[in-house]
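Schema walk-through. Below, the input block comes first and the output block second. Nothing else is stored per chain. Lengths vary across the set, and this one has 84 residues.
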Amino acid sequence: MGFRRFLGALLIVAITATLAGLWVGSRRSTGPAARPVRPPAVVRDLYGNPLTPAVATYGIDALGGSVEDHYPGTRIERLAAPEG
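--- output ---
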């Protein structure tokens, strides 16, 4: 009998939490429209030079090797074969 009471209480808590989440979500969606996001100001380094975002992200793959993921449109220069 104790297990059934536990399941009943758990069901009531789950239903109440779901209904509360739906109610809060519906109240947020009827509010005023969000303001448009402004582009960030130009970020500068200590010498006043403008900083631009990086053109690649770096990580480690499942085997432990390094991964360099370039953004589309980035030109990647290839090194020439070593001389001698």
